[in-house]
Design a protein that fits this description.
The chain has about 170 residues and is an alpha+beta fold. It is built from 4 helices and 8 strands; from the N terminus they run βαββαβαββββα. The chain is globular and about 45 Å long.
Length: about 170
């Protein structure tokens, strides 16, 4: 069994929103994932499965589309990949709530950061399947847009650390 983390993209998972975390957990259990745990109401779920990453993603996306009536993007990482994201953080000396990992599927073009728009005081760095961003003055006024991460989803490093810890406990 592999420990996985699924990160939902662009879905409202709040208590009065379209997808309560209890529903997300139930969907994962119905897909026959084991040891299912959710983390904060922002579309994070940790579990184990003997299925491949692609099969896991497909199962969750199909359940979400049936529930929401529209496609919902899902990015999947193994426990080891999430731990690696944390370890490779080039801004580890900065506050975890001001550094995000923008998770993407597929390879990231080496010139991805050259195409960023709206850059103010943000600092960026490429990872393996993530782009790291340090928001110096915070995210509230940022206009940063990175086309290579358009179909991705961001989590701050505090969340990445917690998800890595939760997934490691399942491995």
């Amino acid at each position: 069994m592999t420990a996985y983390i699924a990160l939902l993209r662009a879905v409202n998972v709040g208590g009065t929103g379209k997808l309560p975390m209890t529903e997300l957990k139930a969907m994962c259990e119905a897909a026959e994932f084991a040891q299912v745990r959710t983390y904060i109401a922002s579309g994070n779920v940790v579990f184990t499965s003997d299925k491949s990453e692609d099969s896991v993603r497909t199962a969750i996306e199909k359940s979400l589309e049936a529930y929401a009536g529209k496609p919902v993007g899902v990015l999947v990482r193994t426990a080891a990949e999430m731990a690696g994201t944390l370890e490779r953080n080039p801004f580890a000396d900065r506050p975890g709530n001001r550094v995000v990992a923008l998770f993407v599927d597929g390879p990231i073009p080496k010139d991805a950061l050259d195409h960023a728009k709206g850059v103010k005081d943000e600092q960026m760095a490429l990872g393996k399947r993530e782009i790291y961003v340090f928001y110096g003055d915070g995210m509230a006024d940022s206009r940063l847009a990175i086309p290579a991460a358009k179909a991705g989803t961001a989590r701050n490093m505090n969340t990445v650390a917690k998800l890595a810890e939760m997934a490691a406990a399942l491995d």
